[in-house]
Amino acid sequence: MLLLIAALPREFAGVTPRARLASADARWLASVRLSHGDALLAANGIGQTAAGEATRRLVASHPVEAVVSTGFAGALRPDLRPGEIFVARSVAHGDTVYPCGMPLRTPDESRKGIVRTVDRVVVTAREKLDLGRKGADAVDMEAGAVAQVAAEAALPFYCLKAISDSAERDLPVDFNLALKPDGSLSLPAVARLATGVRSAWPGMLRLWLDARDAARSLGHCLDLCRFPA
């Protein structure tokens, strides 16, 4: 069985119409039949703690043969555009670098490179540029923890992301201010932040549309790809 770990259920929107909600072991858990076999979809919240805890529980309680860190990532290169598929060759967190397996049958237009896992939402284009100068191509908040658990369990690890925001654009609000300790996002807090910034609502709409396109691309790719165990 394939285990797919993301942060939020909306990142699985491209495959959830076929999914069946499952029992506990993650805040949101579903099973789905992909073209290449059965898979578990887990979304336990934003950040490494939430992702690592869910991965550890599910690896211990299910016959997992390979682990995939998936969902959305931010671009650190200006040539990466929202909606594009990004296949990580490695995941870097701190001084640790985790090698990634290469899925079979990835889309011809998919991009490849290094994902850097960080501990906070990267909000500004300047922050993205600084991270990109350190050698990464895309950024997320979960892959490093998922990779660590997969390595501890001696399971094949893959990292397949969809780009949800571009490198040269600031996020419309600082989502760190709406992030709860359990890894969930307070939507009322997001609304309050957006209300306080005149230009935030057009940016929120653009971000929502980009995330919708990213989820569609990701759903197609997850059904197409093969992840050898």
The CATH class label is Alpha Beta
CATH superfamily: Nucleoside phosphorylase domain
Number of strands: 11
Which structural class is indicated by helix and strand composition?
alpha/beta
What's the Cα radius of gyration?
16 Å
Q: Could you say what the CATH topology is called?
A: Rossmann fold
- Number of domains in the coordinates? 1
Relative strand content: 25-35%
Could you provide a short overview of the structure?
This protein is an alpha/beta fold. It has helices spanning 48-61, 125-133, 143-152, 187-195, 200-224; strands at 2-6, 20-21, 28-34, 37-43, 66-69, 72-75, 85-93, 96-99, 111-117, 138-140, 157-165.
Q: Could you please describe the fold and organization of this structure?
A:
The protein has 229 residues and is of the alpha/beta class. It has one domain (2-224): Nucleoside phosphorylase domain (Rossmann fold, 3-Layer(aba) Sandwich), CATH 3.40.50. The protein is built from five helices and eleven strands. The chain has a five-stranded mixed β-barrel with strand order 6-10-9-7-11. The longest helix has 25 residues, at 200-224. The protein starts with a strand and ends in a 5-residue tail after the last helix.
